[in-house]
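Loading example: each entry is read as two labelled lines plus one structure line.
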Amino acid sequence: MDRMRAGDERAFEAFAEQYIPGLYRFAQRRLADRELTKEIVQATVCKVIEKLGGFRGDAPLFTWLCACCANEIAAHYRRLGRRPREVELDEDAAETHAIERMETAELVHVSLDRLPFGYARILEWRYVEGLEVAEIAVRLETSYKAAESLLSRARAGFRGVYEQLAGAHDTGGPRDTGRKEGIAP
Amino acid sequence: MNDDEMVRELLQGAGPRRPLPADDLVSIREAARIEWRHRYGRAASPWSFRPWIAVAAAGLLAVAGLVWWARARQAASGSAVASIERAAGVGKWRTGDSLRGGSEIETRSELDGAGRLALRMAGGASVRLDSDTSVRLASAREVELDRGAVYVDTGAGPGRGEEVAVRTPAGLFVGLGTQFEVRAEESAGTRLRVREGNVRLDRGGSPVLTGAGRELVVRGDGTLSEGAIAISGPQWDWVLATAPTIEIEGVKVVRFLDWIARETGWRVEYADEEATSLADSVELHGSIAGLTPVDATGVVLSSAGLGYRVSDGTLVVFVAKK
């Protein structure tokens, strides 16, 4: 974030690459209309950039971005003078109900959405596209050992998020598994 | 079960996530980039050299060569009615291919059915074919649509192309100074959507005229229904995705925005006099070959010291903060 504020173009590119797709998925799950999703995410990202100095680092950056996006969605409905049906409930309750209705495949996809971009990407390369660790290392322009280590952290992160969601799915409320690596809203 | 086994089982069972719309992500990224540059970036000179411009210019020269060669070949044969201006995911066709009267074209991609084509008719109109479309080029002024969707844009102003009609089992859709889409689906019937001008449906008896911002559906039993439509938005994305690139060398920003407005259906508004004046005075150099229209908008406007936002189908252009 400091590098972005200092005008480092590569820092901006890394930020955009890492967070915009995840934020789009976050908004997509809450909004039915594609055009509106784009507008909300665009407005969120622009406001976040405007307020970069306000990010204190107490929470992960993606968590902060999602909170800003949720505010933007709420503001949109306030401007329209109404709120979408699912937001009439409080956010946590609405999310819990949504999770309860999800099939396993959707839970897996939501878990991936909540992981840091690099974690989700490496897991999809390995387990959906079937790449070998050596091939991933080439794609990431890193060593075999570093790719293996990243994959291991990504798996642990995924497991943590998935078990938490699956706990909410089974019990009607989030279950704290004590493994929070990579967890974002 | 260890992490590797568990994650493998779950991810393979779930399959890939739904892909995100690339145009939207590019658009968001460009808007973010402009905002970031306003606040923290080092402002780039509008005319600073960028390596991609040289690469793109070389690409443009190659494309121009191909188009020249295709046109020369057309003139020699005397029977070509169109050429391919842009081919995406349709292995059989290449940019610059010449098409004779009677040519039958299918856009189903061998891999995923997502192939699309943009044709330039001999009379100058742009005709685009969506994925999974089957047509026959009856002549330079008539396309027979069997399945899928055709979009016709005759252009605007004095250089406008000749009208192109689309023949379907539901009747003949004749363009009258237009941008329109005809989509034929076995289950839903034939649907006309008009973006600009008017389209006349001839099917025996009284012709039916449909104007801009309206749609006309001809059901299987021949009954008609009409309704209002948006002239911009996601339902037109496939048209935008097949838009042929324009040359911007020496073109003023305002002309570039005219093209963007035509391709996207957006209305262009200027935030103030200064933005209007800048758009009307700055000349562009380089090329936007290889960029999507939305991507090109961000690149061109930021190079000219302008920013933009899109809201409710309107592209608002403003002067970028220094």
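Chain A has a mean pLDDT of 76.
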